Amino acid sequence: MKKIFLSIALTLITLTSMAQSTARKFIVNVTPDGASTLISFLPAADKATGKAVVICPGGGYGMLCMDYEGTNWSEFFNSQGIACFVLKYRLPHGDRSLPFSDAENSIKILRDSAAVWHLNPYDIGIMGSSAGGHLASTISTHADYAHRPNFSILFYPVISMDPKKGHAGSTRNLFGKDKMYDKDLIQEYSNDKQVVSHLTPPAIILMTNDDVAVPPVTNGVAYYSAMRNCGNDCAMYIYPTGNHGFGYRSDFKYHDQMLGDLTKWLEELPSPKSDAVRVACIGNSITDGARIDMKDLKGYPAQLQQILGAGYNVKNFGVSGCTMLKKGNFPYMNRLAWRDAQAFNPNIVVIKLGTNDSKAVNWQYGAEFKQDMQSMIDTLKLLPSKPKIYLALPIVANCEVKNEGSINNEVIEKEIIPIIYKVAKKNKLKIIDMRDDMNREELLSNDGIHPNVKGAGVMAKDVATAITQ
């Protein structure tokens, strides 16, 4: 009998302790009229990690499952020091801008209130289940930098807007019955087709193999594949059974395992310090990490982060094929990465462009290279952070010139590099020259220009040395 009473007492103590994880609960209006709100659950200030998550319940864009796909998650997150905000978003009824704007504004509200709510503005995530997973993945792939989350948690998400591949009801409710077969809309909001290297945030996808409502292969698996193919950080867990909509239901056979998987992923997820020195790596495919598998983990900016440590927040804004030249065939300053790099408001910027400019198809506009580089520098100088700017010289291109689409090392050495030196002198900027260090066959892929993982490590060391001297 004493053992029974002891067991009951321990259980009550545990439940009481869990109930105390939420230090404050309140509601915030997302829209002025209160049609969209955030049900907010904050952990105690001394327990807060700074991490926060906006939760988008599912319901096929026709209703909201606010409990087991929403508020029931609050204790799970608060007990880990993670703030939790359950979004009651407006249902679209054919107007997709309603839920999209509610989710975007929620992310912005959290960042704007970070100091008051003890949040880290660089560690704000989004979570969604089913159609809520589509909403979460849409904000992850379509929103601008200020409204885009830092990580995504997707439960059995609707990813495809093709009624035959995703969930017909969600498509109909989001687009309206008359547009549910619109090919352009389906393409734009099938979010596996909108993933971008480095810019789409890390994600974890959790679903079941026997889900008949939202087929895993054409939805969650498709999103994972797109993330993996882009080299982005992504994890996927597929449980044998449980069908659709298990959420936080305790009767889900793999409930405890699922919570453990999610907890471990959150623990391992990089969480940059809110006051870390922000480093923006701007460049072409060499910065992007082309030909490096899992480049978000092994490319030169990722290895630079490892070298510099927690006091720095390094972001990869490299885009393969880009030119400094505005009239080039793929100008960097026309890309989303350039807008994101500015919005990042970096303290340090490393610019490594010029390799693709050497191609004949681009260098016909070479007379404008200097002014275009100056234009980029002037834009960066106007940022509130007043960043320190480094100009990295293009590495030696050990590839043969074959046509106007080929990189020309002679143009790089005799024309582009002298211009970079002149621009650096005019603006009193430091040059990072890694040409000698990188001019070794074992550091490059077989095309003679793109670094392999080892080469990316050498680049990272050279850049780290320049930054920390």
Q: What does this protein structure show overall?
A:
- The chain is an alpha/beta fold and about 475 residues long.
- Helices cover about 35% and strands about 15% of the residues.
- The longest helix is centred in the last third of the chain and has 19 residues, at about 410-425.
Shape field:
globular
State Rg.
24 Å
Number of helices: 18
Question: In what order do the strands lie side by side in the largest sheet?
Answer: 1-2-4-3-5-6-7-8
Structural classification: alpha/beta
Largest sheet: 8 strands, mixed
* Terminal CA distance: 69 Å
β-strand amount:
15-25%
Number of separate strands: 13
Given as residue ranges, the uncertain stretches (5+ residues, pLDDT < 50) are 1-18
Q: What is the arithmetic mean of pLDDT?
A: 94
Helical coverage, percent range = 25-40%
Question: What is this structure's SSE topology?
Answer:
Elements: H1 2-19, E1 22-29, E2 37-43, E3 52-56, H2 74-78, E4 83-88, H3 97-112, H4 114-117, E5 124-129, H5 131-142, E6 151-155, H6 168-175, H7 183-189, E7 203-208, H8 220-229, E8 234-239, H9 255-268, E9 277-283, H10 285-288, H11 295-298, H12 300-308, E10 312-318, H13 336-343, E11 348-352, H14 360-363, H15 369-381, E12 388-392, H16 409-427, E13 430-432, H17 435-438, H18 453-468
Parallel strand pairs: 3-4, 3-5, 5-6, 6-7, 7-8, 9-10, 9-11, 11-12, 12-13
Antiparallel strand pairs: 1-2, 2-4
